[in-house]
Amino acid sequence: MSKHKKDPLLEALKEGQSYTWTVPDGGNLASMRAALKHGQTLTMSPITDPSEIRVGDLVLVKWHQSDIFHIVGDIQDGQFLIVNSLGKINGWVAASDILGRVSKIVEPEPRPKV
Question: pLDDT tens string for the chain (114 positions)?
């Protein structure tokens, strides 16, 4: 049995399926804190056609030895500029490095007033 746990998001995308989860409370959301909020429910969908990717899309990208959740900042000649929500530019990637994109965001219900 493998010691490595499979990531259900990556497994769903590999199988051509969408995956929905809620951003958990806790943590600071790091470089994506200006784009995401705790409690949002996100649906990530696989990329079936790279021409569907738009500037401003939130995407899951193969980046060096890991996967990161960032924003498409520009598109030129089939390459995609990856940036974070705080304005840092990461660099250019090929369409094959984009594993999926957020296709739906549901805002959390407001907390009841006491």
Answer: 445 578 899 999 999 999 999 988 877 778 888 888 888 999 999 999 999 999 999 999 998 888 889 999 999 999 999 999 998 999 999 999 999 999 999 998 887 887
> What residue ranges in the chain does DSSP mark as E strands?
19-22, 41-46, 58-63, 66-76, 79-83, 89-94, 98-106
Of 101, 71, 109, 65, nearest to 88 by C-alpha is 71
**Are 70 and 80 spatial neighbours (Cβ–Cβ below 8 Å)?**
no
For residue 96, give the amino acid letter: S
Task: Look at residue 54 and give its three-state secondary structure.
Answer: coil
DSSP 112: P
Considering the entire predicted model, what is its pTM? Answer: 0.85
